[in-house]
Amino acid sequence: MKDVPNLTLHTDKYQINMMYAHWKQGTHRQKAVFEVYFRKLPFGNGFAVFAGLERVVRYIQDLSFGEDEIAYLSRQEEEYESEFLEELRRFRFSGDLFAVAEGTVVFADEQLIRVEAPIFEAQLVETAILNFVNYQTLVATKAARIKQVTEEDGLLEFGTRRAQEADAAVWGARAAYLVGFDATSNLRAGMMFDIPTKGTHAHAWVQFHEDEEKAFKRFAESLPDQVTLLVDTYDTLKSGVPSAIRTAKWLEGQGKQMQAIRLDSGDLAYLSKAARQQLDAANLQYVKIVASNDLDEHLIAELKAQGAKIDIWGVGTQLITAADQPSLGGVYKLAACERDGVEVPVIKISGNPEKVSNPGRKDLFRILHPDTGMAEADYIPLSDERDLVERSTIKLFDPAHPYLHKFMDRYEAVPLLRSIFSKGSLVYDLPDLQQIREYHQQQLKLFWPEYLRKRNPEKYPVDLSEKAYRLKMDMIHQWHE
């Protein structure tokens, strides 16, 4: 096996084949506009949380074909011409890239990223961008749902061992942290992104010792300021919790306090309430209860409804794999391209109405009510309408049911797409994770709770401008004539 640290070939082969065909036909320098969006919100949720931009930025910055990549491509069955390989050797991204900020609350059918570049460059980056954004946005959205039901409780990301490989583990941990998780168990993620890390001990620690109490005391002796004890190796209420209580009392004698006990199996509602009673009876009200064991937002909501006495939730498999919907389904579609020196809109027609694309270069605005400051809708005009948006009366209407509409002449239009790369140069200051976390919380405050609730959320409006809608309808009719 050969180590391949360069992500330039983290792409589908058909991208290289299309680049080669463009090069052969002399169209490789013609400009193209692509948009990244998803068609359906995941998990039946009312919103999604955009994530993955930092990795996209690092990928674009490092994009180049080294000698190993060139040599590998030279051996492909397509037998690419040597002049094409020389073109790849000179490759650098020279285009523009716009994106919404990480942590932004986003919705279906609105562009998250817009790439404007020579088709030769714009085609290459599709696969990697979708890979990064699809996964991290999916996990961030799942984590946001979990954060909603846990409210102010502690939240720990425990997913590394069940993640689909190492990169998924660390970037998934980052996605969870940016929406409000408090820490991760993954030390590499902690080192890479400056995320707080938390860890207790495994059942193996208890099994290694002659008895549970000796295992707990030796662990407490070793890490007296970081004692959380896993109490379900044998019998949680008859052995584990009583042994933890005796260990906590020993720690008090050393001038220390035990932090928590952890439950990892059994009826978590019943066990947490019984354990809380035992701890309180021993005057250990300060000892918290951590729970894990295939938790997700549904199970946590049920446990809270049953009055479970759990202070901190360790969430792993169901989060890091997005188990109930393991793919976001984001797409990268051509919206406009250069023909005879002029940019023209293009459309994808499909027998599935939801797959018909929105043609033309477009912008994205969040329309806020001037009195309440709350979000009324997201608005997608063509880019040549941008200057009109903030000073014109706009018509908000349901694209599927245009007769459902309203006019707004008083509003604040907040542009969501930010310039990230301009002519190949990074022009955006990447925020740190703490700034993204704070921004995400501000985002949530813009929306009425009906749009954010976990079950049966109200559909938030995402509206094309009248001009963008007419362009789409005209192009559909043109292709069906």
Description:
- This protein is an alpha/beta fold.
- It folds into 2 domains: 13-139 and 326-480, nicotinate phosphoribosyltransferase, CATH 3.20.140.10; 152-320, Aldolase class I (TIM Barrel), CATH 3.20.20.70.
- Helices cover 39% and strands 19% of the residues.
- The protein contains 18 helices and 21 strands.
- The longest helix has 25 residues, at 126-150.
Structure summary:
This protein has 481 residues and is an alpha/beta fold. It has 18 helices and 21 strands. Helix 12 links the parallel strand 9 and strand 10.
How do the helices and strands line up, and which of them pair or pack?
Layout: H1 13-25, E1 31-37, E2 48-49, H2 53-61, H3 67-74, H4 82-89, E3 96-99, E4 105-106, E5 113-118, H5 119-124, H6 126-150, E6 154-157, H7 166-178, E7 183-184, H8 187-193, H9 203-208, H10 212-222, E8 228-230, H11 236-253, E9 260-263, H12 268-281, E10 288-291, H13 297-305, E11 312-315, H14 317-320, E12 331-339, E13 342-345, E14 365-368, E15 375-380, H15 386-389, E16 394-398, E17 401-408, E18 412-415, E19 418-422, E20 425-426, H16 433-444, H17 449-452, E21 462-464, H18 466-480
Parallel strand pairs: 6-7, 6-11, 8-9, 9-10, 10-11, 15-21
Antiparallel strand pairs: 1-5, 1-12, 2-4, 3-5, 3-19, 12-13, 14-15, 14-18, 16-17, 19-20
Helix pairs in contact: 2-6, 3-4, 6-7, 6-13, 7-8, 10-11, 11-12
